[in-house]
Amino acid sequence: MANYTAADIKALRERTGAGMMDVKKALDETDGDTEKALEAIRIRGLKGAAKREGRSAVEGLVTAKVVNGTKGFLIEINAETDFVAKSAKFVALADKVLETAVAHDVDTVEALLEADVEGKKLVDFVTEEGAILGEKVVVRRLATVEGSFVDAYLHKTSKDLPAQVGVLFAVDADSDQAKEAAHDIAVHAAALSPQFLTRDEVPAETVADERRIAEETARAENKPEQAMTKIIEGRTNAYFKDNVLVDQPFAKDPKKTVTQVLESAGTSAKGLARFRVGA
Q: Cα–Cα distance between 109 and 75 in angstroms, integer?
C-alpha cells in the first residue's frame, strides 16, 4: 500500500482541484510522492485535453479590477461545471488571468491569451490548469472601460457560486457625488441588463427593425393612419428605454432616468461593460 495519509489526499486536492479518486490513483501510482502525483495528475489531464475540446464550458465566473480609479478590466472565464467554477483552484486561476490582463494592459482576449505568465503564454497556462481541474477551461471575454472614474460591481446570483454578473461603469468626473452615482448605476446595470450605453451605440439595422415591427404591429391592430408616426416613435422609444442604459428609468427612483441621475451628480456616462456568465 502506498505511503500517504488522508491529510495528503486533502492537501493535494486543495492544490489541484482534482477529484478524490484521481488524487488517490495518482498517489498510488507514485507511492505517495505528492510532487510526482501532482505531475501525474497534470499529465493525465493534458492527455485528455483533446477529448474535452468539444465539450461546452458554460459555467464559470466574472471578475474585475479598476486601476488608479480610471481604467477597469472585466473578464469572464468558463468551466464545464459549477462544481469546478466554485473551487478555490478555479477562482485562483481567474485571478491570475485578470492579473495578467492588468499587467500587460491588454484589451482583447486574443492579446491576453498571447501574454506571458510564468514564462509561458497564458493560453498554455490555462490549458495546463484546466488539465489539473479535469475540465475544459475557456477565457471567454475581456472588456476594458476608461473614464475620470470607473466603478466595478460584481453580483452573485447564488451564494454558493462566485460572481455571475459583472459591470464596469465609467463617468467623466471624480467628485464624491459622481462616484456615488457611478456605483449606484453600476448596480442598476447589473439588475436591468442594458445592452447599450447610449442610443448612438444601437446598430442602425436594429433601430430599423424595431421601427418596422412597431409599424407592422400598429397596422395589425388597425391603428389610425394619422397616428401611425407617433405610435412608431413611441414604441421605438420604448425599446430604447428597455435597452439603452442612459434612457432607462433609474432602479432606485424610477421617476428619474439614468441620465437625470448623472446630471444631478454633475457628470455623464463615458463607458459601460456588462457580462453575465454564459449569456
A: 9
Rounded to two decimals, what is the model's pTM?
Answer: 0.79
Of 274, 199, 178, give the one whose Cα is nearest residue 244: 199
> What are 11-61's pLDDT values in tens digits?
777 666 666 677 788 788 887 888 887 777 766 654 444 454 555 567 999
* Rounded Cα–Cα distance for residues 126 and 93 (Å): 8
> DSSP readout, 39-83?
HHHHHHHHHTHHHHTTS---EEEEEEEEETTTEEEEEEEEES-HH
Give 3's Cβ-side CA count (13 Å radius).
Answer: 1
Checking DSSP bridges between strand 249-250 and strand 253-257, what pairing results, if any? antiparallel
Q: How far apart, in whole angstroms, are the C-alpha atoms of residue 231 and residue 222? A: 12
* Domain 59-197+249-276 superfamily per CATH: Elongation factor Ts, dimerisation domain (3.30.479.20)
